[in-house]
Every structure is written in C-alpha cells, then in structure tokens.
Amino acid sequence: MENPCMNALPLTMTSSQKQVTVCIFGTGDFGRSLGLKMLQCGHAVVYGSRNPQMSSLLPSGAEVLSYPEAAQKSDIIIVAIHRDHYNFFIDLTEVLNGKILVDVSNNLKINQYPESNAEYLAQLVPGAHVVKAFNTISAWALQSGALDASRQVFVCGNDTNAKHRVMDIVRTLGLTPLDRGALVAAKEIENYPLQLFPMWRFPLCLSAMLCIFFFFYCVIRDIIYPYVYKKEDNTFRLAISIPNRVFPITALVLLALVYLPGVIAAILQLYRGTKYFRFPDWLDHWMLCRKQLGLVALGFAFLHVIYTLVIPIRYYVRWRLRNITVTQAINKKDDPFSISLAWLSDSYVSLGILGFFLFLLLGITSLPSVSNMVNWREFRFVQSKLGYLTLTLCTAHTLVYGGKRFLTPSALRWYLPSAYILALIAPCTVLVVKFILIMPCIDKTLTRIRQGWEKNSKSSKPLLFRKSDVSNKAECTWASEI
Amino acid sequence: MENPCMNALPLTMTSSQKQVTVCIFGTGDFGRSLGLKMLQCGHAVVYGSRNPQMSSLLPSGAEVLSYPEAAQKSDIIIVAIHRDHYNFFIDLTEVLNGKILVDVSNNLKINQYPESNAEYLAQLVPGAHVVKAFNTISAWALQSGALDASRQVFVCGNDTNAKHRVMDIVRTLGLTPLDRGALVAAKEIENYPLQLFPMWRFPLCLSAMLCIFFFFYCVIRDIIYPYVYKKEDNTFRLAISIPNRVFPITALVLLALVYLPGVIAAILQLYRGTKYFRFPDWLDHWMLCRKQLGLVALGFAFLHVIYTLVIPIRYYVRWRLRNITVTQAINKKDDPFSISLAWLSDSYVSLGILGFFLFLLLGITSLPSVSNMVNWREFRFVQSKLGYLTLTLCTAHTLVYGGKRFLTPSALRWYLPSAYILALIAPCTVLVVKFILIMPCIDKTLTRIRQGWEKNSKSSKPLLFRKSDVSNKAECTWASEI
Amino acid sequence: MENPCMNALPLTMTSSQKQVTVCIFGTGDFGRSLGLKMLQCGHAVVYGSRNPQMSSLLPSGAEVLSYPEAAQKSDIIIVAIHRDHYNFFIDLTEVLNGKILVDVSNNLKINQYPESNAEYLAQLVPGAHVVKAFNTISAWALQSGALDASRQVFVCGNDTNAKHRVMDIVRTLGLTPLDRGALVAAKEIENYPLQLFPMWRFPLCLSAMLCIFFFFYCVIRDIIYPYVYKKEDNTFRLAISIPNRVFPITALVLLALVYLPGVIAAILQLYRGTKYFRFPDWLDHWMLCRKQLGLVALGFAFLHVIYTLVIPIRYYVRWRLRNITVTQAINKKDDPFSISLAWLSDSYVSLGILGFFLFLLLGITSLPSVSNMVNWREFRFVQSKLGYLTLTLCTAHTLVYGGKRFLTPSALRWYLPSAYILALIAPCTVLVVKFILIMPCIDKTLTRIRQGWEKNSKSSKPLLFRKSDVSNKAECTWASEI
C-alpha cells in the first residue's frame, strides 16, 4: 500500500489532515529532514534548540524555541541529537516528566557503548517514556522520498502506550512500524543499520577462494600446458570455457559444504552420545550460514547453466563443428551412430537439468516470504530430502560427465587430474557418510539422541511428565534431519 | 533483522541484559531446550518438576523446584507437559490464579481431541490467563540455533496483556511473534505444525498421473513402435526426447485445469441463476488449489524450456545435423530456403517464449510477498487477463508446432495420434467455452448474478439501502472474473 | 497458515466454536456475503434492515430486524450501506452510543468525497467508535472462498480497543488484519482498492513507446531496405530476429533511465548547492518509479536471453550454417581459425551473461520480502554499486557486440546507423557523467551537500548539537549514492 506522503503526488496529499504536534530536539540534518517530512504529512513541528535564534536551514512552517519551551508544546519529543550531548537532559528532567522521548540516534561502530543510546537516555530522564525508533531510516531517504528500500521502522520501548503513539506517527509518514518489544532491544536496533551482510561474508570469501584456486588450476592445465607442449594459443578460452569449468565446480563444492556441517554434527552427537552440548564455534557459525552458502552455490550453478546453453552460439564451437563436417565430407568417411555415446550425453545433460531444477526450488523456498508460509515439518522435508536429492543428482551429473575418460592416465597433464575430479571429493564424501548415517541401526541411535536421550545418563528413572516421550514421536519425524 | 540470540556470535550476545524470570513446568526435551535458549538470552529459568531431586539433564544455571514452589517464582509459566498429564493442574488452581500459563504442546494427529489443548488447560485453571505459543518451533531448532526456516511463533490468548508479555519473551529469543487473536484460534495453531503441504497433494498427484500416462504413451509411439517395425534402438530417447515431450504436455494440461474450474463455476451459476449456493465439494477444493496447480505447471514448463535449449548440445542432434550436411555435400544437392518453414519455426518458438515469459510473471505475482503488495483489482487483472493470455499463447505454440503435419494420417502409429494432439483437448475446450462466456449477452447476465442478482427472486422490491446497487458497479469490474 | 474457514474442508471446520454475535446493517451483496462467511466461521449474525419483512436472499441462520432492534443485539455493527444513505444514522445516535461501527464502504473514484466515508460516519455518530475495515476484500472472494490473492484487511480507527476487537473478528474469518493507525488513514484505505498499478503506468508506457520506435526502425533497416534493393523477402525475421534486436535495446535504454534521474539530481544539487529544496515534479515522479523501470528492463533482458539461446534451434540458422558448410566442403576451401574473432565472440557473450546475472540479482533484491531483510546500508550497496556494475557490463556487452564493424560507413542503410548504436547513447551518457561525479573533488562537495551542508548559508556558526556532524559520518557512506 503506497502512502500518499511517500509518492507525493498532489492527488493523494493528505496535508489538509489534522495531525499531532511533534517536538524535535536538534536541528542537524536528520532533525531537519524528519521535520520536513512531518510537516509534509500534516504534523505541526516545533524545534528545540540551544540557540533558537541562530538556527538556520530549518524547514519553513516549523517553530524554533529553546529546549524547555519546545518540550512544553508537545507530548512527543524526538531526540535528534548525538549521544555525547545527552547530558544537558539532566536539567530538563522536570519538564520532560511523563513525556515520550523518541531516541533516533545511531552510532559509528557496532557495540560502541556498553549500553544502548536509548537505555542511556532512559537512565538520564527516568520520568520520561523512552522509545527507540526511526534510526534505521536515512535522512537522505526521508528527504528525497526515494524509499524504495525497506520502509520498516523498528520500534521498542517499555511503555506500551508511548510505543503505540510513536507507531501511529510512523504510519502517518508512510513507513511500517515493527514492534520489537521492550527497550532492551534498543542495542540490537542500534547495531542493525551498521551491518553490511554479516552472514554473507564467509560464503562469499570461501567461494571467491575456490574460484581463484580452480581458475588457476584450469589455466595451468588448459592454457599453459598446451602452450608449452604444442605452442597452441588457447587464451580465448579465458572468456567462456574456463569460467564454465570453474563455476560448476565451485557450485558443487559449495553445495557439498552446505550438507557437510550437518553430517559432522551428527557424528559429533553420536560420539558424545548426547545433544545437550554446544557445538564448537566454527561448526555453529558454519551451520548458521548454510543458507547463504547454498544461495551462492545456486548463483554459480545458474551461471554454469547459461554458459553451457550459449555453447552452440560461440564462434569457436561453430568453427570446430564446421571443420569436422567439412573434413568428413571431403574424406567421405562414414560416422557411425554410437548409442552408448548418445546415452551418456543425454543422461549427463538430463541429470544436470533435473539437479538444477531442484536446486532452484530450494532457492525459491529460501525466499523469506515463502519460508514463512511453510511449517517446520515442510521446511525440513524440502531442505533435507530435496537437498540431498539435489546433491545426489548434481554429483551424478559430474560423474557421468567424466564418463569413460574418468581417471584414464591420458587425462593427466603434469600429473594434474581434470578439475572436475577434485570437485567430486567433497560431495562424494558427504553422500557416503550420509548413506552410513541413515542405515537403520545408526539412524535409530541418532534419532533417540535428538529426542533428548543421553548415552551416559541414568534416564531410566521414571520422569512421569516427560513431554518428549509422547509428543516427540511426532517431532522426531521432522527433527531427525539437520 | 538477525537477533543476537540466534547467531550466537560473542560480539552481539546480550546475555548481560536483565530479562524476566520464567518458570517451566516439565523437564522433557522441549522444556530443556526452551530453558537453555532462555538462559542464553538472559532470562532466569526455574523448572517445576514432580520429583525435583530426580530431574537430570537440565541446563546448568536453572533451578529445579516442585510445581507449587516453582510457580511462585514467576508470573509466566510455560507448560511443557503432555496434555494427558494436565489433570494435576487441578491441585494447583489457587497457586496459578492470575498467572500466565503458556501452552506449548502439540498433538500427534490433526484434530486429535475435541477441543484444543490450550482451551482444555484454560478450563482446568479458570483463574489463569492461558496463552498458546511456541508449538510451531521444534526443540531441535531451538537447541541447534539453526532457525533458517520460519521464525514465526503464532500466539493466541484471551487476555491482551498476557499475550503481549508472552510476545515480548518470544521477541527476546530472536523469534517473530504473530498475534492470531483469541484462544479459539489455538486448535488451528495446534494443527498447523502437523500439516505436510495439504494444498499441494492433489496437484502433485494429478501431475504425476499425467506424466506417467503421457510417458508410456510416448514410449509406445517413439520407442516400441520403431523397434517393432524398424528394429531401431531408440532407448536413448528416454533421457531427453521423451521427457521433453511429456513435460510440455503436462504443463499445458495443468494450465488448462487451472482455468477449467472457473469456467465450470460460471456455467453452474448461469444454470442456477444465483451465486448464493455452495459449489460442490470437489469444485470448491479444485478452485482452492488452482494456485498450486499453476505453479506445478510452471515447473514443468521451465523444465521444457531448458530441455529445449540444450537440444543443440546433444550428441544425437549434432550427429544427425552433421550427417545431413555431409550427405548434402557429397551429393552436391541444393537445399532451397523455404520461407514458410522459416515462418512456422520462428513463430512457433516465439509464441512459446512469450507464453513462458507471461507464465513466469504469473508465478512471480503468486509469491506471497508480491501478492500482498497488489490489491484485488490488480490481482484479478494479472491472474485473469494475463492468465488467459498465457493459456492462449501456449495453446497457439502447440498448434503451430503441429503445423502442417497436424492430423495427417501418416502421423498415426498403431492408431495413436501424436501426444501433443491429446494435450490440446483440455486447453482448447477451456478457451472455446471462455470465449462463449465473454460474449456480451452472456457476460451481462453473469455479471449481474455475481453482483447478487438472482433469477428466481422477487428482487424487484425496493430494497432501499442496497449497497450493491451503487458501490458494486466498481466491484463488478474486478469480480466479474474468477 | 491456512485458516479452516478459508479452505472449507469438513475436517477443519470450527463452526462448532462459539464466536461473537455480529450485527450487519444493509442486506446488499456485500452484507450478505460477509454475513454468510461469518455464519460459516461460527459467528451469530443479525441483519439490520429498513424493511425487515421484505428482505430476501439473506443467508439462512441469520436474523433480520429493524435497525434499532438489530443494533441492540450486538456491540459490533458492520455498516454495509452506501455512503449516500448514511444520513439515517442521525436518528440512531442514541442506540449506537459506545458501539463499534465498522465502515466497509468503497467509492467509485479515487478521492470522490472531501473526507473519507469512515470519517463522515464518525461525524454523524460521534458517540460510536468507528473502525474502517474489510473494504479491500471483494464480496465475490468472500463468497467463493477463493482468496488466493491478498488476505490482508487494512484496519484503522481512533479507539484501540474497538480496533483490536475488529481485528480479532478479521482473524476468525481467516484474513490477516493490518493495523494502519488512526481513522485519518481511512481515506488512503478507501482509495487503495481503486488503484490499478499506479506506479507501473509510466514505465510500461515508456517501454511500449521505445519498443514501437525501435521495432519500426529495425523493420525499415532489415526488411524494407533489403526488399527495395535486393528484392529479398525477409518478413520471417519479424518473429525472432527483430524482437531479439528490439528487446535488448529497450532493456539497455530503460536500465540507463533508471540511473539517469540520480545523476540529474546530483547535478541539480551541485548547481543549487543545497539538498533542502524539492526536485521538480517530473524528476520526483521519475525517481519514484525507478524500481518499476528496472523491473520492466529486466523483463526485456530476460526475453533477450531466451531469444538468443534459441538461435541454434531455428530453421533459418540451421539452413544457413548447413549452406556455409556445404559450400566450403564443395570448394574444399580452408577456413582458418581467427583468435581475435574467438575472443570477440566469447567476451561479448560472457559480458552479457555476467550483466544479466547481476541484473537478476538486482531484481531478486527488489522483491518485497528480500528488501525488507536488508538494511539501508546493504540496500544502497546492492542497488548502487551492483546497479552501476550491471549497467557497465551491459553497455560493454553492446559495445563489444559492435566490435569491428562499429561505425563503419557500410553499416549505414538510408543513412540510418544500426539500432544498437542509438541504444548506446543513454547508457554511455549516464556512465560518463557518473564517472565525472565520482571524481574526488566533485564527490567531496556532493557528500557534504547530502550531509546537510549548504553553499550559501552562514553555517559556520557553532550549532553545538548538530547530529549530522558526528553521526552522519556513518550515514554518508550509504547516503552518498542515490
């Protein structure tokens, strides 16, 4: 739903509407931008400033007063001041008693101060109701109206009424308030706008490293080796042939790495005989970025698909096919049809297509709005069953690609095997270990552990009211897989 | 927004924060997992148990007391006990007076008991405020922190304050509370985690059946027939050629079945002369899973597209093209360019691409987050207008594919026509009937019926305040299409 | 979460549940549909009508009374009456005192009346709590249960309790209530269902115009010109060749137009030396539909990709390649391999693939559910950095496509250059100006302006509490780009 204040078309302006008077402390950029926006949306705005007569650049229509005077004009005071200057609030505690103080400040670094700015403000003015809001919106965006990104404003505060009044103001500005609970959440809300894809860093670095490694590996085998031995100039392969070798390999290795931590965790649980322990930090972190790893792998798989589909358009391929045909026509040699080659080529391609299709499905179900629609049981089904099927199909695709020339010594160049053989190590390991783990005897123990059973405990005691005994039978069906 | 409690990185831990004390009744797996999570997020946790001294495996830092002692330590009591043991609450009614009881239980089957567990609990302890929550989260997920799936916790309860306090706790655990209203909704919330794609079952079964039927149909025509008559071994066609015939056929039939129920409903309404009756159950169910039918069809269409695009890469195709060229070169025969063939081939491909593109658009608008952004009028426009355009384009694509050989007797093998001819029956029927329905005279009657007019009623009476008379003029524009 | 009332399967019907009694004023289509739905979901329904004994067609199970009698039966009264008849409420003010009046009405045109229907109702019955709701749901959808579109019901009202009670009823019907704040929002909510893609109109018109222009341009150069001079019949090119020239050109021009307003805005800001002024209306509107422009461009790019990938399947292409090969075989002429051609062809394709891949990423991040997950900093990073990279790659793709024949006089036909040369004007302009703008000296001034600095102001005054001074250092990193 587009709010009239956002798209600023004269047709839908509601400025004629009577809205609440809002007081803004601070005449910096954010204060001015927010004030302008509020004026546009029908609010009356009063600025509080240390030097009211010296404040310039304020939006026309807004009053400027000293802090105490401004505070008396409104119940709701927006504090657009840097935390370092909060100490002047000590003199205003009486005036601000019972008022709603909206802290909009941000910091320069994550966790810069021991407590959040909003909690600090609440300590300084104990009589006021402090609400944290607006800090996730940029001044520039408010100014330009170009809020194509998130319109979400995280709001938190200890007083429910105060929070709801601030949320109503947020709504009048065409933004979407999201209640984040009590003021304790302020720290998190203040850290939020400073993040830059924290969960994506590891997957992206890892895939970049894999790409670079396999790129140079392929360059050595496919460009330098022929140049040294046959004086062939194959540099044009850098544009398509080599990326189309590096991308699928990276995709397959990353996909295997999505499922590897689950397998490691299962082995750890079997070894320790309990699920009630913390995984090592590296494993924890790895498990938490599996979704991102999988999406990066999907990106590489997508590139591989398009790079493969353009093959017949390439000049080199057309030239080579033409040459083969011409040679054949000149020599009048017969080229018999090989059914086994047709089978190999078609099944290799078909496995790849099906693998990619399932991979895309996995990607779509990881879209936030889709994964919010499925329950845990469904999510487990998709991510675990379909995920392993995808990994199996993609591994089979690579194995069949190798086909007959798999591990023939002639494929070695400078003792280096083809790159795709290296790529098979991780997925094959995962699939073999997974196959062992789902064998009935091991699976049964693992399922019991994941239902709360412990190897070394005296849990034969009759714990009469164990929810797990009964209701976990249902749960285990979807919790038995990571 | 990632909550610090979720990704458990030391940097963002807020465990130092002071949070509410929570009491948990029951020391089973779910109770222990939830307690551990709460401790990690800064809550104090007190367990209530029948045999406090015999309870093992509890997270360190949590106290264990008897039920009445534990209940006195906190306002909020989480009931992680199986419903069968709820009867002991009868002895605790006094202690629990005014407290918030959070029912987290699940059942083993949908609608296992006449009333929901939470309502049953509310009957047992009338003085307490019962809130249903947390049942959609798995113990394993809480334990491992691997909440990549839905973080939504459905909350319902009759007391608003109690509900809001529970929602605040949900937020501190890094989960998203969703208010589902009064305690009546508990039954639905308890059934939710037991579902496994209920709306997808019919579409998937139907498409599997269609696939199998057309697969064997094609195998008979394309593999067994040539083998019997010409001793040709065409088995390699199983990998790509036959799937690429089965998938588009299934996609087209499923797409037609998306629009068939709407057409049937319109005929039923015309026949009965009113819209105020219930459709037969099968039609109701069919109409409700049209979206899923369409998405399955889109999946098959996508597979068809990729299977078609890889054609020039296949060994068989390259071999065949080479052989034709070589034969032509040896015979020095001229191959004149046929403009009509070029037109047929290009328009066939072009129609298919445009149809697939619109189909993708339909798929994208059915994403929950996208369809939430459009209003009814826009949704109707996309799904009805664009939908029929897609069906028309895809049907035309299939018709032009047939081209000149459509219904020539030589195409029959064992009296079986080509599979694509069978595929055309459903979409052509839908398009013809739809074309009749949108003819002005019929469309006018249908529109009146859908605005509330009834053939057999004496509605000539002056119902002075009929909203429909005036405001439905606007509505009919977007309600005139199913 | 599927609500039982929606999919109406007997298994999950909760009609046995005791729900609130609801009174509905008005027996028109919407009133009847809503009443039927409420009866199905377990509510008791009482209709209010001017002529109770003459009302027909009402759902069985509902009582029909006169207005005052019906009003006394329930706290919640749904007003399903057209605004023109609201004046009879004047006689009911006493009976309705303290009751909740739910206004569900819609208008025929956007902003038809000076104040919203709900506010008008609130003026007529000052003692009642007026809540706006249900107007975004169509009667037909309620009737058929086919709510595959948005289930969102926007709710607004001045009394929080009244609003929450209405939201609870909305939830029992299987719909999702969305709190839109106070009754002031009613106007916006009433306008909402009347919109038909307001933000998409300009982008779609613009792209249609571009398509038509380039289509005729290509028809003149590629079909009419050869026909006039060589009597060649190239009409079959209308199906694929010409669309595959028009679509990429339109995509590239639209993509450039996404970034052009940002560049213009930067120049305007530099020229005026301040950010505190309103952009001209056309620029404002242009900036607000950049997302839609980009998505339309992505659609054309997608079509271009598929049209390109089907090239080797086309009859014309196969015929031409075969002819070249046959001629070569007959003449026994050698065709030497050209490394520079291989480089050109491969890098051209590779640049296009990478550009399309990044373009797709941009499209995915503009999905509402994805863009809600990223903060401003991340959004800026993706849309600005990745966006310009995409534009650069796609422009390079077009430049390399031209390759050696770029601007050779032989490519002119009737003095018309190739269409792709026209397409390069807009993106090259944007890239050149952008390159100038990011040069350190200019970028520094621009950044200062966007932090609130003004060229002509006496802002050297010590504004002690300027939030911008400190905290904008963080902000500028993500606000320095539009």
TrEMBL record, chains A, B, C:
Q: How does it sit in the membrane?
A: Multi-pass membrane protein
- An example of a Pfam family matching this protein is Ferric_reduct
Q: Which domain of life is it from?
A: Eukaryota
Q: Which residue ranges does UniProt annotate as crossing the membrane?
A: 204-229, 249-271, 292-313, 348-374, 419-442
Needed cofactors, names only, are: heme b; FAD
Q: Which processes are annotated in GO (biological process)?
A: copper ion import; fat cell differentiation; iron import into cell; protein homotrimerization
**What catalytic reaction does the record list?**
2 Fe(2+) + NADP(+) + H(+) = 2 Fe(3+) + NADPH; 2 Cu(+) + NADP(+) + H(+) = 2 Cu(2+) + NADPH
Q: Does the keyword Nucleotide-binding apply?
A: no
Which InterPro entries does UniProt cross-reference here?
Answer: Fe3_Rdtase_TM_dom (IPR013130), NAD(P)-bd_dom_sf (IPR036291), P5C_Rdtase_cat_N (IPR028939), STEAP_metalloreductase (IPR051267)
Q: What is its main location?
A: membrane
Which UniProt keyword terms apply here? Copper, Endosome, FAD, Flavoprotein, Heme, Ion transport, Iron, Iron transport, Membrane, Metal-binding, Oxidoreductase, Transmembrane, Transmembrane helix, Transport
A cellular component term from Gene Ontology for this protein is: endosome membrane
The residue ranges of the Pyrroline-5-carboxylate reductase catalytic N-terminal domain are 21-107
Location of the Ferric oxidoreductase domain? 249-393
UniProt KW ATP-binding keyword: no
Q: Where in the cell is it found?
A: Endosome membrane
- A molecular-function term among this protein's GO annotations: ferric-chelate reductase (NADPH) activity
Q: Which residues form a coiled coil?
A: none
Q: Which family does it belong to?
A: Belongs to the STEAP family.
Q: What is this protein called?
A: STEAP4 metalloreductase
- Please report the organism this UniProt entry assigns to the protein: Cavia porcellus (Guinea pig)
